[in-house]
Sequence to fold (939 residues):
Amino acid sequence: MNKTSYSQILDAVAADHVPNDLDLAPIIIARIQKGKSLRMQPQRKLVSTILLIVIAFVLLFYAVPEVAAAIQRWLGYVPGVGLVQEGQIRALAEPVSVTREGITVTVDQVLITPERTVLIYSVEGIPANTQDTPAEETLCAMPSYPYVVSLRLSDRSPLLASPMGVEAWPTGYRHRFKYLPIPAEINEATLVISCLFHTQPGIVPEGWELPLRFVPAPVDMTAFPVIEIPTSTAPAVMVTPATSLTEGAALTLSLDRAVQMNDGYLLYATLHWENTPFNYVDVIDLAENLHLLDASGQEMLYEVHEDEQTGVKEDQRQTAFAIKTAPVQSPGALTLKLDAVLVDLPVDASFVFDPGPSPQPGQEWQPNVEFTFGEHRLFVRSITVEGTGDGYSIEMTSDTGILSTGFVDRDHRIVSGYDGISAKGVFYNGFYYADGLPKGPVTLWVGGIRVKQAQTLQVQWTPPAISTTVLPTRPSACLTSAAWKASLSQPPAIPAGLPQKLLTWGPVDPNNLNGPWEAAITSLDGSQRLPIGAMKGAISPDGSKFAYAMDETDIQIKDLASGGVTSLPGTTRSYPFLFWTPDGRSIVFSQIGSFDLFFVNGDGSGLRQLTFGGYHELPIGWLADGSLLYGEWENDDQYVVYRLDLQSGESQEFSREDIQTVSPDGWHLAIAEATSGDRPQIVISDLDGGNRWSLADGNQSVLFPLWSPDGQWILVAVSNTNMDPITYTLINLHTCEIIPLPNLHDDVVGWLR
Amino acid sequence: MDDVQAIRRLKNSDIGGLEILIACYQVKATRVAYLVTHELPLAEEVVQDAFIRFYERAHHFDERRAFEPYFLRMVVYAALNAVERESRSAISLDEDATMRGLEGLLSRANSVEEQVEREQLKHAIDQAIGALPPRQRAVAVQRYYLEMSETEMSEALDITPGTVKWLLHAARARLRTLLGWQRSEE
Fold:
């Protein structure tokens, strides 16, 4: 290879287009003198086709009886299913698909535990226009077009579902359902779907039936261990100044159990209000009011978790909530600290309202009634007859922090009601009479006011040991020539339990690499590809938000469900290499011209500089203790990886190796190993450098590692030689199973949970 | 006048310093930008913008550093950003160009003596580079035109050294893949 000649040749190639007498000076000087740097090109509008619509998970629990958590013994926590009790667990023998008129319905997962059956099915290929209708009430799932998803057992008895959550996108959706447990002696069933969710009647096939077969759950099924926390070791402390309304309240907090996961703990806690006079207690604004501290008092990252065990249990006068912590590295106690809670303070007050002899729909009165409850004041601003003429709507305000309340008529039969908040300090409620508006004056009562109550509650728990996912030490590589050839000739199926969605970056037209490129959510097998934007960016760990950067604008965060875009002020001229924090709340980035790292929250707050005086710093990954690994060039020729403590701002040299990525639990590294030949390799190592092994035996090129969200698999680009096309390939770090993904052509940027 | 003197004039708000830098580096910079963007108008705008950006920030420039590599890296990066967000018309691949990888073409071009064949090879190289995805194109330009080391390239593109290797590797593989597609369409 003659590099000088190559340069000369390329110069000659370019010279055919760029002549030596080029003169850009006049236009540059003119632009400067005009006092503005014209935009290089108009910003291209982001692709705004229908994007991933993630409908918030709605947990409805009306069909399956639950046993009180207090007496349950948990076998483990199964991702996607939740806490499961001891007993035999069965699973779907294999995914089942049925395709009709180009639409494929697939049952992805079924798990049968002694207390319930959980089923997940997905649909792909729904024509977009089947959901376009001005009359939403005609869509499947509306009363006129029932959406029934039942399990018909082999003895012909049906099980009806409780919907747990739906995730939808323009051409399909995935829906989770909960059923009663299928009896142990029944190992076959048929999933019967009346119509496809939110489609119009008669447009797409109806009456779907998919035969299912169940087998004992595989022994390697992921089930994280549950640590029950005795009450005596989790003392709750309440430090609250009593007020006239909270006097005697004995609100306490307990930590009930911890699920040890690969990348932290799932902590279940309970607010106890059994011995309080409150009508109701709930957590409020956890991001603001709940703090998780490590043994050194440093605030740790967490995300709120919701499942069947969480929520307000009014019959028990308890409120359960859960958080998923960031990886815990520092030994010692974790502290959960609540600064405030939402309480419904009991009050009992009324006023008489006289609407006159003939109230009309829409008629409004300003009663100017004021109540004082201890330190709180409530004003009744207006009362309006509902448009239907059979109820009242009442608007109230408070200047002392009442968040909401509601009036009702206790002397007449009420059929339904509602409440809401229209602005800070302005709220309303309404109700409807069973027998129309009563004649003459009515007495309206209020029984409670909801306020945010400053309430310091804290609880501590010491994890039994430092959490770590022990990866097997492999004396020899997984990816040998023989194993690679065998997997190519007979590619194994992609495990159904593996998160299936990737963030990719590739050409809009795969046959035209020179055309525009786009970011997309792409399935592991490459069969589904949903474009989400024309800019390369980063997706939040939960897949709900897409962050991207453009030269002259601030970092933009697109909510993939709503399509709404949030601009983060002060982040202009960011490099497009954005890096989400594990909790998906914040972003680390570097700015052109500065080269240092910056931190900003997803709502634009908390912008701060993390490093100073660096040069071309690049985030790599998050370690178990929440610190950040980043690489930097020193003296233009030495690549150094640093470990940054975000709390103290201190950086320490960590390594001089080319660390490519960090495992989700923050305990393992994937390192590009310098090789003398043309076949670069990836080695896996513990943080401390131990347990080091190479993924391949050196006969293939292996690069671009990306850990699966559960940390059990790694996705790499594999090829035989430099001149062969790359094949993205999954490697199981425990079993060495190799799964080539030959239909995945785009560059893989991220892996969604 | 050398670069340092020109930059000092610039730091003293003397726009003449910028004119000197433009005169010295506009052709090389535009060729770099062209090889990345494969569109001359876009390449010229990239270079204009890069000079203006440097003008605006000249007072931050560390005079101990060499201007040319610094500026050309900036141009590569800006060109890459520009081309990644612009629609471009498809460029059909010359059959000969797709028959070899870029390195093979360069190697052949280095050895041929006959003018006609050299011109054909130049055209083939031009088309082959244009057929690469933008990021791989930028890496190829840095590696073979600017003769940057892999560490310099990773620094300039803000990617780890391993990723540079991958991009180079992918660039070669893409050329091979393109060859397959082209043949299958015939």
Summary: Residues 229-344+455-461 of chain A form a domain with the Immunoglobulin-like fold (CATH 2.60.40). Chain A touches chain B through 79 residues (CB under 8 Å). Residues 3-15 of chain A form the longest helix (13 residues). The longest strand of chain A covers residues 334-353.
